[in-house]
TrEMBL record:
<feature type="domain" description="Mur ligase C-terminal">
    <location>
        <begin position="326"/>
        <end position="438"/>
    </location>
</feature>
<keyword id="KW-0436">Ligase</keyword>
<keyword id="KW-0067">ATP-binding</keyword>
<dbReference type="GO" id="GO:0005524">
    <property type="term" value="F:ATP binding"/>
</dbReference>
<keyword id="KW-0547">Nucleotide-binding</keyword>
<dbReference type="InterPro" id="IPR051046">
    <property type="entry name" value="MurCDEF_CellWall_CoF430Synth"/>
</dbReference>
<comment type="function">
    <text>Involved in cell wall formation. Catalyzes the final step in the synthesis of UDP-N-acetylmuramoyl-pentapeptide, the precursor of murein.</text>
</comment>
<dbReference type="GO" id="GO:0071555">
    <property type="term" value="P:cell wall organization"/>
</dbReference>
<dbReference type="InterPro" id="IPR000713">
    <property type="entry name" value="Mur_ligase_N"/>
</dbReference>
<keyword id="KW-0132">Cell division</keyword>
<keyword id="KW-0963">Cytoplasm</keyword>
<keyword id="KW-0133">Cell shape</keyword>
<dbReference type="GO" id="GO:0009252">
    <property type="term" value="P:peptidoglycan biosynthetic process"/>
</dbReference>
<keyword id="KW-0131">Cell cycle</keyword>
<dbReference type="Pfam" id="PF08245">
    <property type="entry name" value="Mur_ligase_M"/>
</dbReference>
<keyword id="KW-0961">Cell wall biogenesis/degradation</keyword>
<dbReference type="GO" id="GO:0051301">
    <property type="term" value="P:cell division"/>
</dbReference>
């Protein structure tokens, strides 16, 4: 960001003090521990900490000013008072975007939104100076901070928006105000705050109400609730599909893996139809690939641009990242989990295993509210469908999953306990999928197993 304090004050609707015109903001921070000279510090009140209590520390570290919503006492820096600092942060980000004149792509969905954002960034970066948010910095604080980190010479901003309760999108979407809105899919995620799948579809498609004039929407055709909700808000969304034979211009199908661990896909767009290889695997990545192709087309990019872009991708260590050691492929998909992404990953792991043993190391899917028991039991039925050699499970819903599975399962336990149980299997080949909600830290189990197998990345995922 390159604004003076006077410009910041005008963006926030406050008066500029003397000297503000000459003070240039280096960066915007919400964590006083990271403040450096020239930074603008926003006092954000969270569940555990209130930034107002650390305003003096931020000023001592060289903050050029402090944005606050209540009195904070003597601070050795100018104070800009606002009604709500979180709202003000979003307002400043939107103002900075307008100052830059950047086009903005907003990506949301139940599953795959981070992968789509990363893939689209790789594709678009071939033609445009492109910004993106880091990993999943996608909430009411992460989104504006990501936008404020973008520079004026980056003409395209690709921003992920994550929601978990009703009203979240109404807070995020006006900040993003996208030229292109991309919704990857909808499923039973964050039901605790969104109600049911219809509620998820309604909450996600609320983004479309905030499209800029002449803005476009890219929507997955494979989810009727999503597609129909989108049609109520936009006249002609651009559809895509992860299914063969879909009635849409943009589709992709997973065809299998190459010997070196790459994924083989058939990608169909108005520019062409044929097989490509990419550094990720699975039917869920076919959906992501089709989504990126549709979004890229809206940005004026070709099918060739998509192919070249995705082939440059580096794997994310916790998003379907495949490592091989001693004949066993370990899939680290531990970043997070919901019913949609869990079923997708389990079925893809079964496809990858073929006739070899499949071992599932899974954990609870959190934030499902009153549907949690039923959805974990449904997960058990998905496990029964793929016939794993063993299921290790971590979390409160062990019995619910076991009831749906109808077979033998083991508690995953602590990493050392899991490793002892793994050794008892005496497997010399196969596929192991490790996945669960972020709070369970399933990566600890993936890491200890990879060390045991001396497993190294091979091809992989995103």
């Amino acid at each position: 960001m390159n604004l003076t304090l006077a410009e910041v004050a005008r963006c926030l609707g406050t008066l500029a003090d003397e000297g503000f015109e000459k003070t240039v903001v280096t960066e915007v921070k919400t964590d006083s521990r990271t403040v450096e000279p020239g930074d603008l510090f926003f006092c954000i009140a969270g569940e555990n900490f209130d930034g107002h209590e650390f305003a003096r520390q931020a000023a001592a570290s060289g903050a050029c000013a402090v944005v606050a919503s209540r009195m904070i006492g003597e601070v050795d820096a100018p104070i800009i008072m606002v009604r709500d600092t979180k709202v003000a942060l979003g307002r400043l980000a939107a103002c900075w975007r307008d100052t830059c004149g950047a086009r903005l792509v907003a990506v949301t969905g139940t599953a795959g939104k981070t992968s789509v954002k990363e893939m689209l960034h790789a594709v678009a970066s071939q033609r445009f100076a492109t910004a993106k948010n880091y990993r999943n910095f996608n909430n009411q604080i992460g989104l504006p901070l990501s936008m404020l980190k973008a520079s004026a010479d980056q003409e395209l901003w690709i921003m992920e928006l994550g929601i978990s309760r009703r009203g979240d999108m109404e807070e995020l979407a006006p900040v993003a105000s996208p030229d292109l809105a991309v919704i990857t899919n909808v499923g039973p995620g964050h039901l605790e705050g969104l109600g049911d799948e219809a509620g998820v579809a309604s909450a996600k498609t609320a983004l479309l109400r905030y499209l800029r004039q002449n803005g476009q929407a890219v929507i997955c055709r494979d989810y009727p609730l999503l597609w129909n909700a989108a049609l109520e808000l936009v006249d002609a969304p651009v559809g895509f599909s992860g299914r063969d034979g879909a009635d849409t211009d943009f589709s992709a199908v997973f065809l299998g893996s190459t010997p070196d661990g790459q994924g083989r896909f058939r990608l169909r767009t108005p520019d062409g139809d044929g097989e490509i290889t990419a550094p990720f695997r699975g039917a869920h990545y076919a959906e992501n690939l089709a989504c990126v192709a549709a979004a890229a087309h809206c940005l004026g990019l070709s099918r060739d641009d998509v192919v070249k872009g995705v082939q440059t991708m580096a794997t994310d260590p916790q998003r379907f990242c495949c490592k091989i050691g001693k004949g066993v492929t370990v899939i680290d998909d531990t970043y997070n989990a919901n019913p949609l992404s869990m079923a997708q990953s389990v079925r893809t792991a079964r496809e990858m295993a073929g006739e070899s043993p499949l071992v599932l190391v899974l954990g609870d899917m959190r934030e499902l509210g009153k549907e949690a028991m039923a959805l974990h039991e449904e997960l058990g039925r998905v496990l029964r469908e793929v016939a794993p050699a063993m299921v290790f499970y971590k979390g409160e819903h062990f019995l619910d999953v076991e009831r749906g599975f109808g077979g033998y399962m083991r508690e995953a336990g602590k990493p050392e306990e899991f490793l002892e149980a793994w050794r008892e299997l005496c497997l010399t080949e196969g596929v192991v999928l490790v996945k669960g909600s972020r709070s369970l830290k399933m990566e600890l189990l993936a890491n200890v197993l990879c060390r045991e197998l001396n497993a190294l990345p091979q091809g992989g995922g995103l």
